[in-house]
Amino acid sequence: MDSLGRVARRRARRLYTLARTALSGVKTGPGTIVMPGARISREHGGTIQIGARSVIHPGAMLLSYGGFIRIGARCSVNPYSVLYGHGGLSIGNGVRIAAHCVIIPANHGTALDGGPISTQPLSKRGIHIGNDAWLGAGVRVLDGAVIGDGCVVAAGAVVRGELESRGIYGGVPARLLRWRKPSASYLKGVVHREDRAETAEAFAAS
Question: What domain range is 123 assigned to?
Answer without folding.
Answer: 2-205
